[in-house]
TrEMBL record:
Residues the record marks as active site: 151, 159
Pfam families membership: YkuD (PF03734)
Keyword annotations of the record: Cell shape, Cell wall biogenesis/degradation, Peptidoglycan synthesis, Transferase
Pathway in which the depicted protein is active: Cell wall biogenesis; peptidoglycan biosynthesis
Domain L,D-TPase catalytic per the UniProt entry, residue ranges: 57-189
Protein name from the UniProt record: L,D-TPase catalytic domain-containing protein
Gene Ontology molecular function: carboxypeptidase activity; transferase activity
Biological process terms in GO annotation: cell wall organization; peptidoglycan biosynthetic process; regulation of cell shape
Lineage: Bacteria, Pseudomonadati, Bacteroidota, Cytophagia, Cytophagales
InterPro entries: LD_TPept_cat_dom, Transpep_catalytic_dom
PANTHER family registered for this protein in UniProt: L,D-TRANSPEPTIDASE YAFK-RELATED, LD-TRANSPEPTIDASE
Domain of life: Bacteria
Family to which the UniProt record says this protein belongs: Belongs to the YkuD family.
Length: 251
């Protein structure tokens, strides 16, 4: 279990890969996405005073509201700003974490993009690192599931689809690929809902008979609060019990 203690979910190495975006453009769907949406992406970044080749990206998903927020910041800045919000085209499962293959659940927790797929069955997609260290402790030991993507089209059995017309995934794929080229790790935080105090109390009321679920959400809440307060990615570890721990706890 020692590796769990050493996993710093928000302190991954930042390795610049300037050829990544150029190489992505060699794929027909990415090239078409850039030709049709590249100027829109550049204008979005410019409007928010974000340097198009020196920025970090952060994605925050809210399952109940079916929203995917896109946050960005310049490399030389500390705090992120919200630059765009996309709607989930469809959703599956219920509020709560993913625990096994085939449960149709969209995960909840703290992830990052691991793989870009320019030949996705759903036009374009990128994969997140589910199951992470916390999931491996709590999920089915033999088959916790996997292959969780943010993708185009409008079908899902646990992924986040952004629309059958593929307009949104084209924009987001270009943004994420540019951030990757700049040497950034794009974190993807997935919450049951906007976890403000009113919504959190509502969860506690509606799910009062499900202690395990409330304990799980109570473990997510400090990370939600930390980002809301600072607009920075908090340092997180996973302890031996499979619970997230803030490196700098809330005061």
């Amino acid at each position: 279990m020692k590796p769990l203690l050493l996993l710093l979910l928000s302190m991954l190495p930042f390795i610049s890969d300037p050829d990544f975006f150029t190489n992505q453009l060699k794929h027909p769907r990415v090239k078409e996405a850039y030709d049709s949406k590249g100027k829109i992406v550049e204008e979005l970044l410019k409007l928010n005073n974000i340097h198009s080749s020196k920025f970090d990206l952060f994605l925050r998903a809210l399952k109940k509201e079916k929203k995917l927020e896109v946050w960005a910041k310049n490399k030389n800045e500390a705090t992120f700003k919200l630059i765009k919000t996309y709607d989930f085209c469809e959703t599956s499962g219920v509020l709560g974490p993913k625990r096994r293959s085939g449960d149709r659940q969209i995960p909840e927790g703290f992830y990052y993009i691991t793989t870009f797929n320019p030949y996705s069955d759903y036009h374009l997609s990128f994969k997140i690192n589910y199951p992470n260290a916390a999931d491996l402790v709590h999920s089915d030991k033999l088959n916790p599931g996997g292959d969780i993507f943010i993708h185009g089209d409008c079908v899902t059995i646990g992924c986040i689809p952004l629309g059958a017309d593929n307009i949104n995934i084209k924009e987001l794929y270009i943004l994420a690929a540019k951030a990757k080229s700049a040497g950034g790790t794009t974190h993807v935080y997935i919450f049951p809902c906007y976890m403000n105090e009113e919504n959190y109390k509502d969860l506690q009321t509606k799910y009062a008979d499900n202690k395990n679920l409330l304990d799980f959400w109570a473990n997510l809440k400090p990370v939600y609060n930390a980002f809301e307060k600072s607009k920075t990615i908090p340092g997180i570890t996973v302890d031996r019990r499979g619970f997230y721990q803030l490196l700098k706890p809330e005061k």
